[in-house]
């Protein structure tokens, strides 16, 4: 028997099915066009590859994980790495890249030799609770963060430059983050050191966990003592980097801050009497001047020059040899 209602239902279903198929086909074609011939995959983007080859900044092994980022040309400060996507990963257990050329990039991931950033994150153990002094040397900017607190900020475009900082650490586990960026080619530097027994040593993830690291904890009033051509001089660490202290000549005082190349410090000296009287007083004295000293990497001695007031010409030399560390 002829059933007009059934025919209409079948026709209606066929029309709807045709429309659905047409829409699906159009979406597939559009996806192929956008993807160069293949439909666009959905889901999470793949993780950045691991750098297997050895580079100055790390390789395939180590307890600290680093991320490599591309940065825009002209970057002059550390970026907000949380807003960037890494292009690769690497590992290390130390940061010991003295000033050198960098012209190979990161094999297998990127050939960038300039305008890139690195963010390292990990943890280390401390056996002996105490106060520890770190030194960060970088070209260009770098920042050391321990337990979420900025310990050293050495940011900006600059040649190899040292900055220091201290932190109180309890016995146990601590987190570390080190940020770094390289501006224009070719020179790089990135070194993290720690003061141990009066000498600077390369920091490693294992150093403070053992007996050897106990020598790195600073005692109250920890000081460096030098015999110099201006009498015995005692230097004590300053918060944020540098030293202040006294020397024997005319009740001399001295204050130094890290500057420029590794081991170079600049500052002022002042005395109760001197051959030249400055018009303006500094440190409550009219007998003062500038000083520039360069210390040996192990702080065993130094050499440099000094001048009167703000006069640019050097008036003489200043050198010394370390006697002991209190």
Walk me through the structure.
It is a single chain. This protein has 326 residues and is mainly β. It has 2 domains: 66-216, Jelly Rolls; 224-325, Lipocalin (Beta Barrel), CATH 2.40.128. 10% of the residues lie in helices and 44% in strands. The protein is built from 1 helix and 19 strands. The strands form 3 sheets. It has an 8-stranded antiparallel barrel. It has a 6-stranded antiparallel β-sheet with strand order 2-1-4-9-6-7, with no helix packed on it. Strand 15 and strand 16 form a beta hairpin. The protein is globular. The termini are far apart. Mean pLDDT is 84; it is low at 24-45.
Tally of strands = 19
Largest sheet: 8 strands, antiparallel, barrel
Compute the number of structural domains. 2
What is the spatial order of strands in the main beta sheet?
A: 12-13-14-15-16-17-18-19
Overall 3D shape = globular
The residue-averaged pLDDT reads 84
What structural class do you assign from the helix and strand content? mainly beta
Please name the CATH topology of the largest domain: Jelly Rolls
H/E order of the elements?
HEEEEEEEEEEEEEEEEEEE
The CATH architecture of the largest domain is Sandwich
Helicity level: under 10%
Radius of gyration: 30 Å
* Tally of separate helices: 1
Poorly predicted runs: 24-45
Beginning-to-end CA distance, first to last residue: 113 Å
Tell me the fraction of residues in β-strands, as a range: 35-45%
- CATH class of the largest domain, named Mainly Beta
């Amino acid at each position: 028997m002829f059933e007009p209602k059934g025919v209409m239902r079948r026709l209606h279903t066929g029309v709807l099915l045709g429309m659905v198929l047409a829409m699906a086909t159009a979406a597939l074609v559009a996806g192929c066009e956008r993807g160069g011939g293949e439909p666009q995959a959905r889901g999470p983007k793949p993780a950045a590859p691991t750098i297997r080859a050895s580079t100055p900044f790390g390789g395939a092994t180590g307890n600290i994980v680093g991320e490599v980022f591309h940065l825009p040309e002209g970057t002059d400060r550390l970026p907000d790495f949380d807003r960037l996507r890494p292009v690769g990963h690497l590992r290390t257990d130390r940061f010991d890249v003295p000033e050198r050329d960098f012209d190979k990039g990161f094999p297998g991931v990127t050939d960038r030799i300039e305008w890139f950033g690195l963010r390292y994150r990990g943890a280390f153990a401390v056996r002996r609770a105490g106060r520890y002094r770190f030194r960060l040397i970088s070209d260009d900017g770098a920042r050391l963060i321990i337990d979420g607190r900025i310990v050293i900020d050495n940011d900006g475009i600059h040649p190899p430059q040292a900055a220091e900082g201290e932190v109180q650490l309890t016995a146990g586990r601590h987190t570390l983050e080190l940020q770094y960026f390289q501006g224009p080619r070719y020179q790089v530097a990135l070194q993290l050191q720690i003061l141990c027994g009066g000498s600077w040593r390369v920091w490693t993830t294992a150093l403070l966990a053992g007996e050897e690291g106990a020598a790195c904890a600073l005692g109250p009033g920890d000081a460096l003592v030098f015999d110099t051509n201006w009498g015995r001089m005692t230097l004590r660490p300053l918060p944020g980097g540098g030293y202040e202290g006294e020397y024997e000549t005319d009740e001399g005082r001295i204050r130094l801050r890290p500057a420029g190349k590794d081991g170079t410090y600049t500052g002022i000296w002042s005395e109760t009497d001197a051959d030249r009287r400055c018009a303006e007083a500094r440190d409550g004295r009219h007998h003062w001047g500038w000083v520039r000293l360069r210390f040996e990497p192990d702080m065993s001695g130094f050499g440099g020059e000094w001048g009167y007031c703000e006069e640019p010409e050097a008036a003489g030399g200043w050198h010394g040899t370390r006697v002991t560390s209190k």
